Amino acid sequence: MGMDKLQAMEVFVRVVETGGISRAADSLRLPKATTTTLIQKLEASLGVKLLNRTTRRVSVTPDGAAYYERCVAILAQVRESEESLTQQHATPRGRLRVDVPTLMARSVFVPALPLFFARYPDIELALACSERRADLIEEGIDCAIWSGELVESSLVARRVGFLYFATCAAPSYIATHGQPGHPDDLAQHRCINHFSPRTGKISEWVFSKNGTRIQTSLRGHIALDDENSYVAAAEAGLGIARIPAFVLKEAMERGSLDLVLGDWFPEPSPLYVVYPQNRHLSSKIRVFVDWIAELLGEHDGIQLRSTLRQGGSPPPQRR
Length: 319
Known about the structure:
Elements: H1 3-18, H2 21-28, H3 32-46, E1 51-53, E2 58-60, H4 62-85, E3 94-100, H5 102-119, E4 123-129, H6 136-139, E5 143-147, E6 155-163, E7 165-169, H7 171-177, E8 191-194, E9 205-209, E10 212-216, E11 220-224, H8 227-235, E12 241-244, H9 245-254, E13 258-259, E14 265-266, E15 269-276, H10 283-298, H11 300-303
Parallel strand pairs: 3-4, 3-5, 8-11
Antiparallel strand pairs: 1-2, 5-15, 6-15, 7-12, 7-13, 9-10, 9-14
Helix pairs in contact: 1-2, 1-3, 1-4, 2-3, 5-10
């Protein structure tokens, strides 16, 4: 089928990704009949069934799923070869789907995007903000920023920094309940817990100071899984909370939160950019991952915890 074969592969990939022949035809601006014919020819030339068609939906067969992986890799290599021959790689283009944690998106990532678009005007970004770890391949996500330890082996992971946390409370809470002087005092305080949207499990509180580590579970009267609501709960004076240092710095400048337990810091969490292996050939992903690494590498709230000392309110008095 010559050149037709590549077009057929592209159509097949789009059908799998969109879940339908009509949707694939629309997104490729092809007549539906052409799309159907290309898929039929592809199946005939391979001698296997790639898709199961029902009236409502098209699903991929096991053979189709394996062939899809190969097609994605082959098409990426073809694009890469073309880009390296033309000057296309100087201006990466196309749509990128990216997942970023909510607070990082708001405070670090989105404010820096004008600089990204100034550098790469032809990239179109679809940005999702959440705390969950999505299935990148299944959901068609090109790359994501994750914090915490990684166990996934099918993804390429690049460490781009650490997420530092700090313990804090609203001035209204401190006025009523006073301040803890040591992590052990937290048992007598109201604490705001965080639970995993994936497992529902409440996160442990871990503190370290000069090599001493304290790990504890604290009873709380409220637990939240959404980062924005968690910060709002702390600002509302519901209790003592742990939030990323860069968020606390902004809140201290506004006067809505104060640092507590300033000499005991929660353990930092490694930050990674992750992406599927078959995506690393794409120049738009490469420039995007490099840009994230550069952005986070220069961001004081991601790289340093000492900046909290320059917040809006003075550090709390130690007892």
